[in-house]
Amino acid sequence: MSAVSFSSCATMFSGTKADIFIDGDVGEPVTINSSAGEYKDVTLPTLVEVNRRHLDGQHIHVTSEHHSFDDIVLERTFNGWALVSALVYGTPFFIDLMTNAVSKPKYDQFFIIPMDSLAAADTLRRKRPTVMVSTMDSDTRARVRRRQLPMEYPRHEVNVAVGVGSNQADRSTKHFVDDFIQPMHMETDTECGDIFGDSYIVGKIEYHYRLNRKWDIGAMAAWGRSSESYTDYYHVVEQHQQDKPGTTADGYLKCRTFSLAPSVRYTWYETRTYRLFSRVSLGMMRHHLQFDIEGWHYGDEQKPSRTLAREESSKKTQWRMAYQFSPIGISVGSGPLRLVVEVGYGCLGVYNVGLGFSF
Fold first, then answer.
1. What is the full DSSP assignment across 64-77?
2. CA distances from 303 to 123, 243, 298, 307 (A)
3. Are strands 17-24 and 109-112 parallel, antiparallel or unpaired?
4. How would you classify the pairing of strands 156-164 and 131-133?
5. 3-state DSSP call for residue 131?
6. Of the candidates 154, 51, 173, 133, the residue with the CA atom closest to the CA atom of residue 100
7. Measured at the alpha carbon of residue 14, what is the angle toward residues 13 and 19, in degrees to the nearest 5?
8. Tens-digit pLDDT profile for residues 250-292
9. Residue 101 CB: number of other CB atoms within 10 A?
10. 243 or 263, which is more confident
């Protein structure tokens, strides 16, 4: 299981809303109504959001105290993130269809002119458009986006998450187990409901303090667990074919990890509804490994029941450096409670999904 498997690439990275930049030849504040809400007394240039659903033909209304404006009418085009979702993840592409994340505005920058500022001849004949597609340079777009973000924002965040996938502790766990199962010719004992096998499932709690828009620091504590069963299938089959009594062995792996590490996160991109970031964590891990062996004696045809012949237990505890590098992280939500998803590698596994509370 992975966070990305249950999420859609386009919906995750594009969101359910789209950004529209509006500039204009207007010397007073305007009020803008879009499908995402009302923006009162804003100065141009500005940024507004629109819902992606029913994007084609959607109107944005602009009004002011002394001027009137034509509506901005949107057109849609295909969102490239949806193609990534369809090719890589398959089924979650249907989430993009439901949220209409497969679409994006064909044009997301407009320049507006008040209708009453046109000459009478132009107004009658409408030779000059009052809504024009414009091109805004990247610096202006970034400045407008920063201005639209709230001046005051939550500085504290506590989040809890579950991580799965390949784990930093996997290699030492495999070496520990191989020392027992290879000499005894054991194989994995597949069980009903054994979804994760010997992979680690990690639970995490974390606190971060946001220094500014780009950087936040904090620390995390994570608990990991791994378990697996092994059986000497070869000897069981051989004894059954020869109808002879004999012995076999069962093995049980039980491993735990505890990691404590400071964390640093860097925000690459942010809107009112989501934030893209990367994280680096570096600390210490306590790794406890345990392998239990049970030897069983089988009877013959007259007495097929088995009896316990021996029990052994091997334990090992080691300390090591814990790390987590997540190049892709996203926090989604407009309120204090947000969905937090990360993709990376380390003591938390590859995929992490959880909830964050900001205050």
1. -SS-B-PPEE--EE
2. 103, 12, 8, 11
3. parallel
4. unpaired
5. strand
6. 51
7. 140
8. 889 999 999 999 999 999 888 888 899 999 999 999 999 999 9
9. 26
10. 263
